[in-house]
Every structure is written in C-alpha cells, then in structure tokens.
Amino acid sequence: MYRKNKIAIILIDFDNFFKITIDKYKPIEFERIFKNIAGEIIRNNNEIEEINIRLYGGWFIKNELNNKASEILKIITNIKVFPYIKKMKRIKGSIDLAFALISLPKFKWKNTMREKKGISNLRINNDKITETCIKNKANCPIKIMKKFTKKKENIVL
Prior knowledge:
Layout: E1 7-13, H1 14-17, H2 27-44, E2 50-56, E3 60-61, E4 64-65, H3 67-78, E5 84-86, E6 89-97, H4 131-135, H5 141-150
Parallel strand pairs: 1-2, 2-6
Antiparallel strand pairs: 3-4, 5-6
C-alpha cells in the first residue's frame, strides 16, 4: 500500500518574524515559539505527520556563513521541539536555516546578506530635545546628525 506523507513546510522570514535581536532571546523562548508554531499547525490539520520549519534570511556574506546565522544554528541545534508529542501522536520535524530551495539543495544561496554602508540611522527621543532645538531645527546638532545619517550613500569617511 502506498501512503503519501503529510508534511507541512513552514517558511519564516527570520528578521521579520523575530523583531528584536537574537541575543535578547533566551533559548527557551525560541523553543516555546517553535513549539507554538508546531502546535498551531497540528491544531489546524490533525493529519500532519511531519513539520519542517525553514528560516530564511541573509545568512551569507560572500561565501561565508555570517555570525548571526552561526548563532541561530547553535540555538536551533540545542532546542528540543521535535518529535512533537500531542494526544498520543508523534510528529517528527526539523528546524533549519534555508540555504537553498528544497528542490535544488545543491544550489546554495550565497552573498545573501545586504550590508548597509555608512552610519546607522539615528532614532531621536523627541521628549528629550531642548526648546532651542525645537525652535531652530537648522542649527540643532541632533537634527543635523539625523539628517546626515539618512543619506548613507553621500557619506565619505
């Protein structure tokens, strides 16, 4: 008898899903998040037998795995989400960084991290700006620096 596996493949844009930097998360929080994702998939389809969670993002600078990808790999290797046991049912699965399409695993996506040039954009706490700066934006050092950092392509160091 031929039986087709019931597999759910979940693609997650890492930077859009995890809004804060990875060092702010504890490994147990990653585990809880991924268990919640698996639980939601199972609740919506009780015939699922396997769940593959693939995280995509800018994992390579040129041909080298970047530090962020290395940190995430350490975390996802050490958390225990699968097998997921629910109501006497065992669901196998995996959590991986997406380096390639599943259908073309040998074709690795290289140079996927976009590096920003120049100084990082500043965020100003407007509650802390002095009255002088509010009244005279053209001569306010904070506002000048903010304007300067907006146009990274014009910065020459």
